[in-house]
Specification:
The complex is a heterodimer of chains A (about 260) and B (about 160). Chain A is an all-alpha fold and about 260 residues long. Helices cover about 65% and strands about 0% of the residues of chain A. In chain B, the strands form two sheets. In chain B, strands 4-7-6-5 form a four-stranded mixed sheet. A three-stranded mixed sheet of chain B has the order 1-2-3. Classes of the chains: A mainly alpha (about 260), B alpha/beta (about 160).
Chain lengths: ~260, ~160
């Protein structure tokens, strides 16, 4: 698989894994409206993931004579070390505060990424981002409002947001560390180095944290030393997630509804 | 059969989740080509994960098959991205009559002013948002503070 295919799959994996995590809330949300909201966000993300997987499968098939893989092969038949999503998005849901903060961190990132990829010289990537950024803008607004509501809410909700920050902040640095497929994507004009998004990401996130009366996060924090989701070195959580998500295709290969 | 007749057949295909609107009203029917008994159709999703897209494709095939038209290719296009501005004026009126507030003008979301003009039931402007997300990805949930009824708002997108 070439580097650019991996770049596309990285975008798909982030959207799929976070979409799957969010879908775990369906039927368990704190109130009906927010159960519906998080399920809708899950749907948007899984839709975005499908578009990226379809594009990657098409590219791989074109480049490899005889290959006929599909979006389903990419989602259901790759193992943990082949997944290229961030450590952030595979983190368990925890409580509502942690789910909200994870969404807010990721949507803040994804919004800036898509905005830059609108200029991608790979027309299919630009088209997916043009479609997706409208949805992401909405996710960002929704999650940002929740960060403020919880941070500047009760003593209990504030304390839970502090716990969520403590849990998730070690996963931030990875968002801005380059992987080999990103160097290739940048060089070919198809993608960007996410390092260029870093300053704006911290500014935007910290602005919301100030309104939410939460401590700001420092851009000086180092990445975790052992884990790198982009490179396929995941936390233990992803294996459990895939075991559930992939069960049907592993147990009954090729089965469909 | 000519292209115009095919377009008018397609214009009868309803959105499965909002059955008062046709795919033409919604603006998701993007292009139709008809040459040598071969029909090529382009449709675009409202939202990336819209689960209605597959049903819509099946419905398009079924509708055309009624007229013996079976040589059909349906392609999903993403760019230019769908916007609620593509919804027809008659579509907006049908939506309001159905009890769903029609989308405001484009870019209202960017300016933070994406909200329905009034309650589709009693037309009061005294309304408030309950949730940014409603029963489908394309809708938000509001309530009217005068007639006290909750209602869906088709979001500006």
């Amino acid at each position: 698989m070439d580097l650019l295919s991996n770049y596309i799959i990285h975008q798909a994996d982030n959207a799929l894994i976070l979409g799957h995590r969010n879908s775990e809330w369906t039927g368990h949300g704190p109130i009906l409206e927010q159960d519906i909201a998080i399920s809708n966000i899950a749907l948007d993300l899984i839709g975005q993931a499908r578009n990226f997987y379809q594009l990657a499968a098409h590219r791989i098939n074109e480049m490899t004579p005889g290959e006929k893989i599909t979006e389903d092969d990419l989602a259901y038949l790759r193992d943990v070390n082949e997944y290229k999503n961030f450590i952030l998005v595979e983190q368990p849901n925890g409580d509502w505060a942690k789910t909200i903060l994870r969404q807010f961190y990721f949507s803040s990132y994804q919004f800036l990424l898509y905005r830059e990829l609108l200029k991608s010289q790979y027309p299919e990537i630009a088209a997916i981002c043009e479609k997706s950024i409208k949805e992401t803008r909405y996710h960002l607004k929704w999650s940002g409002e929740w960060v403020i509501r919880l941070g500047d809410g009760t003593e209990e909700s504030h304390a839970r947001m502090l716990d969520a920050q403590k849990d998730l902040d070690p996963s931030i640095a990875e968002l801005f560390l380059p992987a080999d497929f990103e160097f290739e994507a940048e060089a070919s004009g198809a993608g960007i180095l996410t390092e260029d998004l870093k300053i704006e990401w911290y500014q935007r996130v910290n602005k919301i944290f100030e309104t939410a009366t939460l401590p700001t996060v420092s851009s000086e924090k180092k990445a975790m030393q052992l884990l790198s989701g982009k490179k396929g070195v995941h936390s233990e959580h992803l294996g459990f997630l895939l075991a559930e998500m992939q069960f049907l295709q592993r147990a009954y290969p090729g089965n469909s509804w | 059969m000519n292209k115009e007749e095919i377009i008018s057949i397609l214009s009868e295909v309803k959105d499965p989740e909002i059955p008062v609107l046709t795919i033409a009203d919604l603006g998701i029917l993007r292009a139709v080509e008809y040459t040598d008994d071969f029909i090529q159709i382009q449709i675009t999703p409202t939202y990336s994960g819209c689960p209605a897209m597959e049903t819509i494709q099946e419905d398009i095939r079924a509708e055309l098959a009624k007229y013996g038209l079976k040589n059909v290719e349906i392609k999903q296009v993403l760019s230019p991205a769908w916007t609620s501005d593509w919804m027809s004026e008659s579509g907006k009126q049908k939506l309001e009559a159905y009890g769903i507030a029609a989308p405001a003008k484009h870019n209202c979301f960017l300016s933070g002013e994406d909200k329905p003009e009034s309650c589709p039931l009693c037309h009061s402007k005294n309304i408030e948002m309950i949730s940014r997300f409603g029963s489908t990805a394309c809708k938000a949930l509001y309530r009217c503070l005068d007639c006290r009824e909750p209602f869906d708002y088709f979001k500006c997108h």
